[in-house]
């Protein structure tokens, strides 16, 4: 029996403004570290292995003056927004629900600013779990914290590799394609969801820049 919804945050519940924030910071490619170095810096920041200052230093190849952090955060903070139908879905779904996200410490302000604690039962991020999706350890630590067996959970994410990793551990898993599609999956799992939730609502997706994290 399905008891718990485990759902990704960015580009599932909320729009991810990372790309626009980078542009606002003036992070021109020639001034940055090579893509593999940028990716490693981001992934280490997401699991709290380094702090934000070290992330920027590594990301800019030791030239943090090339990165306008104030502009980055201004655009980032102003760019989050609910994706169509998703706030209503969270409010309507009759399941224990937890956010399960790859994200650094910024998730704490997002959690507060969007009132997530009023809508979900828990918020779990890579910066708290010390590991990122699709590493199996992310899901094992998550299941331990929510005190559920894999088969009792439906995991929802926009990245197929994360969904595949969850499914390999026995979780029910769903690639997010918008609120209407998720409502159909929930109903197929026997979960009653209000007929008006997610109706005719598409999702404006975002394609990451090559070599950039999300």
Draw up the topology in text.
Layout: E1 4-7, H1 18-24, H2 35-46, H3 52-59, H4 69-79, H5 86-92, E2 96-101, H6 107-113, E3 122-125, H7 126-129, H8 136-146, E4 153-157, H9 160-168, E5 172-175, H10 179-188
Parallel strand pairs: 1-2, 1-4, 2-3, 4-5
Description:
The chain has 214 residues and is of the alpha/beta class. The protein has two domains: 4-15 and 82-188, HAD superfamily/HAD-like (Rossmann fold, 3-Layer(aba) Sandwich); 18-79. 40% of the residues lie in helices and 11% in strands. It has ten helices and five strands; from the N terminus they run E-H-H-H-H-H-E-H-E-H-H-E-H-E-H. It has a five-stranded parallel sheet with strand order 3-2-1-4-5. The protein is globular. The protein starts with a strand and ends in a 26-residue tail after the last helix.
Short description:
With 214 residues, the protein is α/β, with parallel strands linked by helices.
Q: Please give the share of residues in helix.
A: 40-55%
| Tally of DSSP helical segments | 10
Bin the strand percentage.
Answer: 5-15%
CATH architecture of the largest domain: 3-Layer(aba) Sandwich
**Structural class, from secondary structure content?**
alpha/beta
Average pLDDT rating: 91
Total E-strand runs: 5
Please give the alpha-carbon distance between the first and last residues: 33 Å
CATH superfamily of the largest domain: HAD superfamily/HAD-like
List segments where confidence is low: pLDDT < 50 over at least 5 consecutive residues: 203-214
So what's the overall shape?
Answer: globular
Rounded to the nearest angstrom, the radius of gyration is 17 Å
What strand line-up does the widest sheet have? 3-2-1-4-5
Q: Briefly note the CATH topology name of the largest domain.
A: Rossmann fold
| CATH secondary-structure class of the largest domain | Alpha Beta
Provide the number of structural domains.
2
Largest sheet: 5 strands, parallel
